[in-house]
Design brief:
Blueprint lengths: L1 H30 L2 H41 L17 H17 L4 H13 L3 H16 L6
């Protein structure tokens, strides 16, 4: 729940910022000179890109959460079998063992979104965020029946 609140607060702050920057861009455009119109258009592009990025991230998180809910209802969520240090951090060797299992599971069933979801969790536990995101995107695509890029 804390993560959701943090995400919503961050998104709200970003939207406020985009509105603020966008209004400055509009003011520059309204000035009417070639220089200010050029700057105004450039300033308006930033909030548009930011809003697009925020929208895509929100959709990604929403879809990943839907998969987690569905997998939980099936009883297929990965069990946390990771060893931890006294400080609570994940033991690297333990994460590597679990990752090896998840990778083998995914290689055995490459068209199963469930195995890709669990592989994404294993990547995340191993602190490999880019690969975790790609694996989750693949799980979402497989779940939705969309073609998957190799």
């Amino acid at each position: 729940m804390r993560a959701k609140i943090t995400y919503l607060v961050t998104a709200a702050v970003l939207v406020f910022y985009f509105v603020l920057v966008g209004s400055r861009g509009v003011m520059l455009i309204q000035s009417g000179t070639l220089l200010t119109v050029t700057f105004g258009v450039a300033v308006l592009i930033l909030p548009v890109i930011g809003l697009w990025f925020l929208w895509k991230n929100t959709q990604f998180v929403r879809k990943a959460n839907q998969l987690a809910t569905e997998l939980d209802a099936e009883g297929g969520l990965p069990v946390d079998e990771l060893k931890r240090t006294p400080g609570g951090r994940i033991d690297r060797d333990s994460a590597d063992e679990v990752f090896a299992k998840r990778k083998a599971e995914t290689e055995a069933a490459p068209d199963d979104w469930r195995s890709w979801f669990r592989l994404a969790v294993a990547y995340h536990d191993a602190r490999d965020t880019p690969r975790a995101r790609k694996a989750m995107q693949r799980a979402i695509a497989l779940h939705d029946g969309r073609p998957v890029q190799a």
